[in-house]
Write a structure and sequence with these properties.
heterodimer, A: about 475 residues, eleven-stranded mixed β-sheet, 11 strands, globular, B: about 525 residues, alpha+beta, three-stranded antiparallel β-sheet
């Protein structure tokens, strides 16, 4: 298995190779591990690479194949896991010095399901510490580099996951999206990234950022691959009372149905001040979908402009409470190990919840949150899905924004509203500008992931941006 | 002569109680760990959730919520149809998440009351209003120790996450006795509902009194001169016909007491506080608003920390737990499922069974005993309730004390006691034998009939007894003559004679009756 072949693989292809015994799981795993080690020096995607565990898992899969057992859907597929996910027996740091030595005694529900599907854990990926960031530069273990241009950020907070996958050191990578932390890195790294409906995937065992906004998703090279993984992770969990009893679909079924008859909206507020080059790229994608049979319509989401302010009140408030358990008594190091961005958000959030300010900030923001959601609900009575930009800029250079927190926060301008509304959004590649990836997002109503995949698949098959590879 | 004007300043205590009740559920409030931690090895009832590990999330215990609603209903509260949990944020080593999941503005129950017996007036009840009852989770337990020569604080998280029901009263109590009566009544109701063993020694019931004093002004002693002067300067606010003039406002401070492990300590601590505060007020100063601990060894309260007027807990709704919505049908169903409560049971025991205040009070103090009485009486309808009551209050209590058990812990059946009483009523066995059999009944749970067989108790039949009575009377004509002359003490002799023949198997009272009847019949 040479490197070139690894970069060509998708989950679909790899599963086929394993099932038809053209390659052994152990062989495949060893190749991915080697590549991971090799590229990690340059890109810093992984905090931990799980050689021994991965080989053990691969051997189990080979045994299943040898015994002609029915293979679970993701059996033998190498996966990179964001270091926010609790993995039993494997160091979990949230990319923070506070948890530098923390080894969980239990698995997150999603991790448990992935283990049950016999995936191979390549490693735990780098990220902005505590998921606080949009570039990966807030990691306590050094930033991750964008495989398409190592002088630029891969996007955050799921920086390591995006880079690890874009560099083909795995076939799927998990992430979390609270204000855009999957969609932004997906757009910056030419990947498919899903932010599911809030409550679609269990948050249990995943280090909480903002409990009312966190959405658990994943990156893949292709839309079909993405649907395959959602089939494993979606569904109600008794341990997470905010998961929905809404039954998950089979997300791969009818994925190729096409977009004929669908109405797709372009919210005017998202395109007003958008960078011209990015706007052109996304409009081109919309045109493609029109040619494929969709109707493109203008819609309005009037409360769009309040999104960032609302988000940056609600999220730090909940962060300040969620980070209170890190006192260094039962596990980890003490609070002096929190770095600048974490401290910033804890202080902000403590303030917005404090007596005399709660009404003006947190309560007010929760009310605006509802208005933002109503915008989407209203829009979805007119259209089936929305297409929006993901990032206001191309992948930016290191140090460009990190010293201006507010500028960094504004990177989230097109992504936060989906989190505030709780609706699902699928980010996928729609082209390159100046050699750098550009992504768009398809936003749908609650639990419409199946529809999002359908639209994404149709566009993807026409354009096949996943065939572009970074030069590594 | 100079008249001394003495202005006496008295104070009326203003007492409220915050009571924490540890619910007797199997599991903790937000995880499946066992809530029954008493006596367990430290840190053996823990899991990621109650340890507050990264990523852990709460799962609400439905039984605990039901218990909370039940108590709310029993206290005549308004039960909230739509309720939620909130985060109470503060840092302390025994609080694993750095916040406690509690309830802020939508507790499960609000605005109820309970009745206590008026301390001064027998038979009269005083209403103590209850502000709210809400659910929250308990913290871990800190212990100070020396390990390897170093002073350390150890933390046991077995208690972390155990469900607590906090009941807050209005400051309606005006004395230590009233406070104690309230606490005891609340404990009784909680135990009746079987939602907690509410044991102060085990820590499953904790009391925190809030105490302050408000001045009561008494008028000066009567003085004609002063009276005339006062007449002149009387304003329309002053009513010279009233004997007291209370300031009905709440005092501008309050002191919270902690570390009280029994009702007795509560009473002592409150009384001490009342005295301490009145001394400060007498100086013209205001007691500091603070938390004070009770030191039993020294019989005093000491300052623990200054309680700010309102600690900023930065409450916000718990995002990991969706709001709870019950419908009125569910609440009605729950209300119907409540057992008969102490006040109603007491009233019933007095009216239906015609028992005295005292007897009814003892029998209904514990639900198990009251239920036992009612069940036993069902099997003893022809008997006197008073007789049954006496056996339970007297003999049963005595035997339970010996065994160190409660009635529920024995296998004694109500119907068995009824059977035993009938046997004694019919004279089949004597009271002495009856007591022996009763002791065995409690130990073994067997019915009287089978125990009589086992113990080979001799039962004398009515015919046999008549024969013996007849024979004894025939042998003692002089005694009969003496009796008829009025020497009624001679009966004891005759009874003794009969007892000798029956070898003590006949009930003496029955024998007495039979002798009297026979003498009257034959003569």
């Amino acid at each position: 298995m040479n490197d070139l072949n690894l970069a060509e693989l998708t989950i679909k292809k790899a599963s086929q190779l394993l099932a038809t015994k053209q390659v052994k799981a152990k062989e495949l795993t060893a190749a991915f591990l080697k590549r991971a080690h090799h590229l990690n020096k340059k890109l810093n995607c992984y905090i931990t690479i799980c050689d021994e565990i991965a080989i053990n898992q691969a051997e189990k899969v080979d045994q299943l194949i040898a015994d002609n057992q029915k293979l679970p859907p993701l059996a033998g597929i190498p996966i990179a896991i964001k270091d926010l996910f609790s993995t039993r027996g494997i160091k979990t740091t949230a990319a923070s010095k506070v948890l530098e030595n923390y080894i969980p005694v239990y698995d997150a529900t999603v991790v448990d399901r992935l283990r049950g599907s016999n995936t191979i854990f390549i490693g735990k990926t780098n990220q902005d510490a505590w998921a606080h960031g949009s570039s990966g530069e807030n990691s306590d273990f050094g930033p991750t580099k964008n495989p398409y241009d190592p002088g630029r950020v891969p996007g955050g907070s799921s920086s390591g996951s995006a880079a690890a996958l874009a560099a083909s050191t795995c076939l799927v990578a998990t992430g979390t999206d609270t204000g855009g932390s999957i969609r932004l890195p997906a757009a910056f790294c030419n990947l498919v990234g899903l932010k599911p409906t809030y409550g679609r995937v269990s948050r249990y065992g995943i280090i909480a950022m903002a409990s009312s906004l966190d959405s658990i998703g994943h990156f893949t090279k292709t839309v079909y691959d993405n649907a395959l993984v959602l089939n494993v992770t979606a569904g109600q969990d008794d341990f997470d009372s905010t998961t929905s009893s809404h039954r998950p679909n089979d997300y791969t079924k009818d994925i190729d149905r096409g977009v004929g008859g669908l109405k797709i909206g372009l919210p005017s507020q998202y395109y007003e001040k958008l960078d011209e080059k990015i706007k052109k790229t996304i409009m081109g994608a919309a045109k493609k979908l029109e040619n494929l049979g969709a109707k493109i319509v203008d819609v309005s989401l009037p409360h769009t402009e309040y999104g960032v302010a609302t988000y940056y009140i609600i999220q730090p408030s909940e962060v300040s409470s969620n980070l209170a358990r890190y006192d260094g008594i039962r596990f980890g190091y003490d609070r002096s190990k929190f770095q600048a961005e974490a401290k910033r958000r804890i202080i902000l959030g403590t303030y917005t919840l404090s007596a005399g300010y709660y009404d003006a900030y947190y309560l007010k923001a929760m009310k605006v949150k509802r208005l933002i959601r109503q915008d989407f609900v209203k829009a979805f009575t007119k259209v089936d899905a929305l297409i929006c930009p993901v990032a206001p800029t191309l992948p930016f250079k290191f140090a460009e924004k990190v010293n201006d927190p507010l500028a960094m926060y504004l990177s989230d301008i097109y992504t936060v509203n989906a989190n505030l509304a709780g609706v699902p959004s699928l980010a996928l590649p729609c082209g390159f500008v100046l050699g750098l990836p550009v992504g768009m997002q398809i936003i749908g109503s609650d639990f419409s992931e199946k529809l999002l995949y359908r639209v994404g698949y149709a566009y993807e098959q026409e354009t096949k941006w996943y065939e572009c590879k970074p030069k590594l | 002569m100079v008249r001394v004007q003495a202005k006496t300043m008295n104070y009326e205590p203003v007492i409220g109680l915050e009571v924490h009740i540890e619910l007797g559920t199997h599991s903790k409030m937000f995880c499946a760990c066992s809530a029954n931690y008493f006596g367990a090895k430290p840190n053996t009832h823990t899991c990621p959730i109650c340890l507050g590990l990264p990523g852990a999330m709460p799962k609400a215990n439905r039984v605990a919520i039901e218990y909370a609603q039940k108590l709310g209903l029993a206290l005549s509260c308004q039960v909230q149809l739509s309720s939620k949990f909130d985060r109470k944020n503060y840092f302390y080593p025994d609080l694993v998440k750095g916040f406690q999941i509690s309830q802020y503005d939508l507790p499960f129950s609000q605005k109820g009351f309970l009745l206590i017996s008026e301390v001064s007036l027998v038979g009269k009840m005083k209403k103590i209003d209850i502000t709210r009852a809400h659910l929250e989770e308990d913290t871990g337990k800190l212990t100070h120790a020396t390990v390897n020569g170093k002073r350390v604080t150890l933390i046991d998280f077995n208690r972390s996450g155990v469900p607590l029901l906090e009941v807050v009263s209005e400051p309606d109590m005006t004395s230590a006795e009233e406070a104690k009566a309230y606490a005891q009544k609340l404990q009784q109701i909680v135990r009746y509902l079987e939602i907690s063993d509410a044991d102060m020694e085990k820590g499953s019931m904790r009391i925190e009194p809030n105490i302050s004093l408000r001045p009561i002004r008494h008028p000066e002693p009567f003085d004609e001169t002063q009276d005339k002067l006062r007449e002149g300067s009387k304003t329309k606010d002053q009513d010279s016909s009233s004997t007291t003039q209370n300031d009905r406002q709440l005092p501008n401070y309050k002191v919270e007491l902690k570390n009280i492990n029994s009702f007795k300590f509560a009473e002592k601590a409150i009384e001490y506080e009342i005295k301490r505060q009145s001394e400060i007020l007498d100086q013209g100063e205001t007691p500091v608003q603070e938390t004070r601990g009770w030191n039993e060894a020294k019989s005093l309260t000491f300052s623990q920390r200054t309680k700010e007027l309102a600690h900023d807990y930065r409450y916000f709704p718990e995002p990991d737990l969706p709001p709870f919505v019950a419908n009125s049908a569910q609440i009605s169903k729950l209300k119907r499922s409540l057992p008969e409560l102490p006040d109603a049971k007491l009233a019933k025991f007095k009216s239906k069974y015609k028992l005295s205040d005292y007897d009814a009070g003892i029998l209904t103090y514990e639900r198990n005993l009251a239920d036992f009485f009612q069940e036993a009486y069902k099997a003893y309808p022809k008997g006197q309730p008073k007789r049954l009551a006496n056996w339970l209050i007297g003999e049963l209590a005595h035997q339970l004390n010996e065994e160190g058990k409660t009635v529920k812990e024995t296998s004694l059946l109500p119907a068995s006691l009824a059977e035993l009483l009938y046997m004694m009523d019919q004279g089949k066995i004597t009271a002495v034998v009856g007591k022996e059999i009763f002791a065995q009944m409690i130990k073994t749970g067997k019915a009287p009939r089978s125990l009589i067989k086992d113990l080979k108790v001799k039962i004398i039949s009515q015919d046999e007894l008549a024969k013996i009575v007849g024979a004894v009377l025939r042998e003692n004509p002089q005694a009969i003559a003496d009796y008829q002359k009025g020497k009624s003490q001679i009966l004891d002799f005759l009874i003794g004679q009969v007892q000798r023949q029956t070898k003590g198997t006949a009930d003496p009272n029955l024998v007495r009756t039979k002798i009297i009847e026979k003498i009257a019949k034959d003569n």
